[in-house]
Amino acid sequence: MATAAERDPLELQIRERPVPAHVGIIMDGNGRWAEERGLPRLEGHREGSNSVREVTRTARRVGVQALTLYAFSAQNWSRPADEVAGLMDLLREYLESERQEILENGIRLEAVGELDRLPRFVRAPLEAVREVSAGNRGMVLTLALSYGGQEEIAAAAESLVQRARAGTLPPGPIDVDTFARELWTCGLPPVDLVIRTSGETRVSNFMLWQSAYAEFIFVDTLWPEFRARQFLAAVLEYQHRERRFGLTSAQLPK
Ligand code: FPP
């Protein structure tokens, strides 16, 4: 029997068209959400983890194959030390509390970024959930942690140079596919939809390569208030966009 969520009119509408295979989210506005309420910024991040839980559940339910969440950028290390420490604590709490839900829902947890910069108390539970969920095939949930798109592209170039020096790179041109295999996101489909919350209309170093042909949706909602309905509305808007990948409208399959 269909659950109440599956009978939701918005969700029923979404099920009629293909859903984006890979959704990336720039979760912005936690600080402003807290400040508007006279709360410490960390309370905004804490409420933001509830949005993470709800959006992940919803994405899984409607059949998104890959969800990538920008949880901490390579540049976020420069924030005040207490905010960085609080975010690291939250990540550890999230990894410990969500482990069961991730496993029960067939989700595979992944992470991209300069992971060796994370404190051990985050890396250890991250590696544990990654390992235990490695065989799951439901949806790949990727946390972008200490992540930067420029850093990722530079690391891929560096890796190709190393391989060329070591003689393990077959001779020939470096084409788009060869390059993409060196990225931290190797194996994930290209990003179809990028959502950014909080009214900012910037990319902020997120998935620069992978979002080459993504549709972008910017919403005014602050991340702690971005829940199932807002996510479903963004997917519906995506489904009504015409994606041309450099072709003309007339060339697209009808
Ligand atoms: C940007 O909002 C948000 C972040 C830098 C952190 C995102 C973290 C979470 C949503 C919670 C922890 C993550 C997981 C995966 C459990 P901001 O602080 O820049 O907001 P502002 O622009 O209003 O100040």
Report on this model:
This protein has 254 residues and is of the alpha/beta class. It has a single domain, classed as Undecaprenyl pyrophosphate synthetase (3-Layer(aba) Sandwich). Helices cover 44% and strands 14% of the residues. The protein has helices spanning 4-7, 9-14, 30-36, 41-62, 81-104, 120-132, 149-166, 176-180, 228-239, and strands spanning 22-26, 66-73, 107-112, 139-147, 193-196, 215-218. Strands 3-4-2-1-5-6 form a six-stranded parallel sheet, sandwiched between helices. Helix 4 packs parallel to helix 5 and helix 5 runs parallel beside helix 6. The structure holds farnesyl diphosphate. Residues 27-32, 45, 48-49, 52, 69, 71, 76, 90-91, 94, 143, 198, 223 line the site of farnesyl diphosphate (FPP).
Descriptive labels:
254 residues, Undecaprenyl pyrophosphate synthetase, 6-stranded parallel sheet, 9 helices, 6 strands, globular, binds farnesyl diphosphate
